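re: that chain from earlier
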Amino acid sequence: MWRINKVWLFTIIPFLILGTVFIILGFNAEPWELTDDGYPLDTFWFIMGGSFIFFSFAPLLIISIWNKRKIKKIQNLLDFGIRGTAKILDAVPTGTEINNIPMIRLNLEVSIPGREKYNVTHKELINPMYYPFYTPGKILNIIIDRDKPNVLMIDTTKFIEEANENI
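^ sequence. v structure.
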């Protein structure tokens, strides 16, 4: 499950403090005081305080919604997806790395019971430790989406068991 990072706290807390200070200043401002532009000073402080508080929480809200949708999509695939196998035809690095883990483009021949074989291109972040499991000719256990046969997930539980046996 996703947890809040301590860096986020150190980023958010100063903005929350400033936002709270601005709102307090808004309550303490006299109604007749104006900004240099001629607008009411209390309204200015309320808008500034609200903006600081809103924009400190907005990224957290967006990221949490995005993560929940991603988890729901994976859970839906695990619950209602069709299990099958895929033969690796080709494994090529894409040149993209995320947190020093390279992305690999896999050309797969998918075999699902009761359906014809078809080819799919799938990109996956693969730890270099698991490269031996992604060689051409290797058979992978996969789960595909019932509605979108090009959307798939590789079942890595077999890899983990094999890696633990080899240790």
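The first strand starts at residue 82 and ends at 98.
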